[in-house]
Amino acid sequence: MKQAVLFSLALGAIFAAAAAAQPDSSVTRDGRYWVQTTNGVMTTVGVWRVRVITEGNVTVRGVADGNSSYSIKERVQARDGQQAGELLRTMEVKTRTQGDWLYFIVTLPRHGAIGSDLSLSLPRNMREVWVETRGGNVRATDFDGVVRTESVAGQIDVDRIQSSALLRTGGGDVHIGRVGGGVRCYSGAGTIRAESAGGESWLETAGGEIFVRDASGPLHATTAGGNIKIDRAASTVFARTAAGLIEVQQAGGAVTAESSGGAIQVNAAKGVRCESASGAIRLRNVGGSVTASTAVGNILAELLSGNRIEDSTLTTYAGDITVFISSNIPITVLARNESAGTVGRIISDFPEIRVRKANSPGVSVVAEGTLNGGGPTLRINVMGGTIYLRREK
């Protein structure tokens, strides 16, 4: 305990000396504001975790040589240089240690402060780096351990993180570069972009779009109002939007997609469950169990050779359903069209699938039959449109 107190006092002395070394002449005019830059170095011997608390923009970077340093650029609004110097002298840098944690706290001047930019260089082998700002952006790069960031309303940018990342902002955009582990990210109103995530990832925004280039683990993407686009996911995908398009280019596992007001498109997946309140659904090169339902919109599904098909169901209440089936897939088809009048039709390229008028009340026409000896059952239900069964060439 005594050693920790001495270490903390030593760090405080370093910071105090660095701040005191800044003369008033270091205050310069920059447009409408007065600016002062304070630089310092620090030791992180015995420290494996760092928590930064400030009020402005923060940039933290991992360095391999183990040296740690900081730079603080402060901006104030004042009538002249003398008043600016007096205001800037009230800025405080405080540090304390607790176990293997180092706390680095920056307090801006109470009056006239416009903002600040804090840059920190820390050993890249830190087990955890936690950055919290009350009014700025956060950028963190080149760390081996866990990175956690919190901003009241700023942007967040992380890249080259070997472990996991926990990111939260009240209203800014989030850019995720390369993260070796999992990601948990929340934005109150911004767009989320993820280049590469190595573990299970949860991406959520209350009012923005979500773009994912590559996810190696299970992926959960949720937005209250925006599009979701996923280029590649090696595992399962769960995507939900209250009003927007969902597009999944390739998934190594099953895809679950729900949209309250937009289209859904899946170009390759091993199992699909899609539901849209108002939008078309397009499923290409899908296998496994396929379930798709839309209240208003067309459904297009491709069942290609090479994909193992399981029992599947396609349903629309107002639209057409078109299914392309490879000629060598063993499958059993049961189709029902409940559309009234001449609208209710089933058009088939397969003579093995017999189309006939239904005897059941409320059903216009039905079609049933087996291809290649039969197999998993494909059920197709239309309440207001046409069913097309097409041979994939």
Structure description:
The chain is mainly beta. The protein has a domain at 1-147. The protein has two helices and 36 strands. It has helices spanning 2-20, 81-88, and strands spanning 28-30, 33-42, 49-54, 57-63, 68-76, 92-98, 101-107, 113-123, 128-133, 138-143, 146-151, 156-161, 165-169, 174-179, 183-187, 192-197, 201-205, 210-212, 219-223, 228-230, 237-241, 246-248, 255-259, 264-266, 269-276, 281-283, 286-294, 299-303, 312-316, 321-326, 331-337, 345-348, 354-357, 365-371, 377-382, 386-392. The strands form two sheets. The protein has an 18-stranded mixed beta sheet. The chain has an 18-stranded mixed beta sheet. It is elongated. The chain starts with a helix and ends with a strand. Residues 1-25 have low confidence and may be disordered.
